[in-house]
Amino acid sequence: MVMRKFSDVVVIGGGVIGSSVAFSLARRGASVTLLDASTPGRATSASAGGLWSLGESLGLGCGVILHTSQKDAGAEPTPLPLKFMDFLWESNLLFPKLATELLTLCGINIEAESATGLLYLIYDESQESHASRIIAWAGSDHGALEQWTPQRIRDEDPLITHNLRNAIHFPGDNQVNPILLNEALKRGACAKGACFIAEARVHALRCNNRRIVEVYSDKGSISCGAVVNAAGAWGAQIAKLANIEIPIQPVRGQIICTEPLHPGTLRSNLSTRDCYILQKAHGEIIIGSTTEYSDFSTKVRYEDICNLAAGAIRAVPALRNVTLKRSWSGLRPGTPDELPILGPAEELENFFHATGGFRTGIVAAPLTGEVVAASVLGLKPKFPIESFLAHRFQRIYD
Ligand SMILES: Cc1cc2nc3c(=O)[nH]c(=O)nc-3n(C[C@H](O)[C@H](O)[C@H](O)COP(=O)(O)OP(=O)(O)OC[C@H]3O[C@@H](n4cnc5c(N)ncnc54)[C@H](O)[C@@H]3O)c2cc1C
Fold first, then answer.
1. End-to-end Cα separation, the chain, in angstroms
2. What is the pLDDT of residues 152-170, one digit of tens each?
3. Most buried residue among 45, 206, 228, 239 by CB atoms closer than 10 A?
4. Counting beta carbons within 10 angstroms of the beta carbon of residue 8, is it exposed (0 to 12), middle (13 to 18) or buried (19 or more)?
């Protein structure tokens, strides 16, 4: 596509978050240009696609893996704030309608599951008492969390190890295909009039009177009414071009996948303290993932991959006989408090953030698109975003 001379909004970063923001803006009638650098290590293409609004916000998804890897003796992983759990819950609820809309609009099936749920496996007593405290803390607002006995686990999913105490089931924590979701949102935005330009790395922003007036990329420059920073783990670099500091840090996730197995081999999405395991629609089993505060390298280490595989075999012994097909890694956009950075930057009148999706950017994408688009257009977001504004970090830079 050819670069336009002007767009109401330029969105920098064409991952799941930038594409969702572009889609929400375009369907509200704004003229949008979406610029993407096609950078290796993009989180969306590396992701597992879990829609684990409860499991992740309660610290029982990647949170527990991070915690185990840090070997923080005696402590247990902590849940994220309730406000964020509500945000993820509401975002997750948008998937069924979004899936239908995107299928109609651009013919892509994003493979959004509706009934699998997430099962958190509990191996020992300390995990068991931690899990009971978490269930009590979460309350009953977010669906029926259930404790499953070993017998129930065997009945529901016979391949899961018998060597465990019990499990917590999170109904509604399903999965999607993250790459198809990203592609569908991007094409959906274009179907509503947006212009997408690949390999367009943004390297400068021109400011005038507290406004960004022009964006410079490898594919040319464009004048604009507003700019959205959706550059994921590279979000701090984009903010820096506008002389703004935000604390985004890459958090590497290494992940592996098996040869395709018969669909339905695994009946639940599984989370354990060593790894998570989910079977995609085409049969491959994804086993993820390390959670490492890192640099921008996308290396895959033999020892880390072996640990993930060992964790998967512990949870599902039959995986011992399965062939691994691929391993890769991606960079999550991490923030110090593990919450996203959304909405207007105080320093400029027309610069907005949509980054910091960390380990829940896929499930958060639909609502993130909605609230950031509303904020850019001067409308009231349908979910309050005060807790996610960048200026909560101001003291770091004072
Ligand atoms: C291994 C792994 C597993 C995960 N599993 C899950 C999961 O199961 N569920 C879940 O909800 N989340 C998961 N996540 C997290 C989720 O993938 C991320 O939070 C989400 O993808 C972030 O999306 P994004 O669009 O912000 O970033 P990205 O997908 O990284 O997109 C950022 C984009 O910005 C572009 N960019 C960078 N610099 C520039 C520039 N200068 N100019 C123009 N463009 C630029 C890049 O090319 C990139 O395409 C996982 C992440 C990893 C790594």
1. 43
2. 999 999 999 999 999 999 9
3. 228
4. middle
pLDDT band at 183 (very low <50, low <70, confident <90, very high): very high
Residue 65 has pLDDT above 90, yes or no: no
Q: Average pLDDT in the 369-377 region?
A: 98
Q: For residue 73, how far is its CA from the centre of ligand 1 (angstroms)?
A: 31
Ligand 1, atom 51: closest residue by C-alpha:
47
The span from the CA of 286 to the CA of 275, in Å, is 10
User: In terms of Cα–Cα distance, which of 74, 3, 16 is closest to 42?
Assistant: 16
Verdict on whether the full-model pTM lies above 0.90: yes
DSSP SS3 for 90: helix
The continuous run of DSSP H or E covering 223 comes out as: strand 220-229
Atom from ligand 1 closest to the CA of residue 254: 1
Q: How many CB atoms lie within 10 A of CB 387?
A: 14
Structure tokens at 83: 């406000």
**Which two tokens mark 75?**
């402590």
**Alpha-carbon span 238 to 297, nearest angstrom:** 18
Residue nearest to atom 35 of ligand 1 (CA): 13
